[in-house]
Amino acid sequence: MTYLLLVKSGFTERRSSWLAFVAAAASTPLGMLVSWPMVSSISQPSLGLRLCLSAGVLVYVGAPHLLPAVRRQAGRSRRLVQRLCQEGLI
Hints:
With 90 residues, the protein is mostly helical. It has four helices and no strands. Helix 1 packs antiparallel against helix 2. The longest helix is centred in the middle third of the chain and has 29 residues, at 44-72.
């Protein structure tokens, strides 16, 4: 998203790629530093539950983009992934 905003605002594609990379590289440790006081005060079981919930939401949001590509593929890998999806393992 940062890349697209930079390109649309007039930066070259190469410069936009570099700035988007730097923004992503800087935001990860910054987010950790900002969230650490809140995360460290949460109990272990509650933190585990929240992490599971966030991982599930990530899969729920990402899966619709991946499944059409799986459907287009032929062969064993397609059947395996479909079976894992049916069983709720993916």
